Amino acid sequence: MKEVLVETSARHVHVSREDLDVLFGKGYELTNIKDLSQPGQFACAEKVLVVGPKGTLKASILGPTRPASQVEISLTDARTIGVKAPIRESGDVAGSAPCKLVNPETGAEVELKEGVIVAKRHIHLTPAAAAEMGVADKQIVSVEIKSERTTVFGDVVVRVSEKFAPAMHIDTDESNAACAFGTVMGTVIV
Ligand SMILES: [Zn+2]
After folding, report:
1. Residue 135 Cα to ligand 1 middle (Å)
2. What separation in Å is there between the alpha carbon of 53 and the centre of ligand 1?
3. For the segment 72-123, what is each residue's pLDDT rounded down to a tens digit?
4. What is the pLDDT of residue 1?
5. Could you tell me the domains of the chain?
6. Distance CA 54, CA 22 (A)
7. 165 alpha carbon to ligand 1 midpoint, in Å?
8. How far is the CA of 100 from the centre of ligand 1 (A)?
9. pLDDT tens, residue by residue, 25-64
10. CB of 96 within 8 A of CB of 114?
11. What burial class does residue 172 get, using C-beta atoms within 10 Å of its C-beta: 0-12 exposed, 13-18 middle, 19+ buried?
């Protein structure tokens, strides 16, 4: 079985405990409004403004908090706010683009020296699903999405962990390019 669910990640922000304290108040707890496909991850009611030299975008926070704040946007978003966001795997933020995060209700703000990335397209797999597909952690594969604009994405990194649920994640630029709307499956090409 080489089919995987394809999910579109809208722009979002992961915040550190420290930055959440500054933005929303000391000890503030995020409000879970929707569990995401990856176990333990959730969309929050809280939104922040992502401010760059040329513009501002609103983004949802995804919980729980993480060791370092990270902003995941599309290349279109990066152009809109005027930042040079590199294509990176989640968590790899060293030397990535800076921005300011602002609480739209209170004006509280945090300067991020780095943290703005465009997520490298990736597939989350459990060890069992990876074995079934014949792929390994960190392997680069292609994925074909059949649609009105059938597209093969190369440079898709496979990530394997017991903590994952099988799903491919692409951003809104990629989703629009491939008309990957609704419930979409992709075929992994090794
Ligand atoms: Zn993901």
Report:
1. 17
2. 27
3. 999 999 999 999 999 999 999 999 999 999 999 999 999 999 999 999 999 9
4. 63
5. 10-119 (no CATH), 121-189 (2.40.40.20)
6. 24
7. 10
8. 23
9. 999 999 999 999 999 999 999 999 999 999 999 999 999 9
10. yes
11. middle
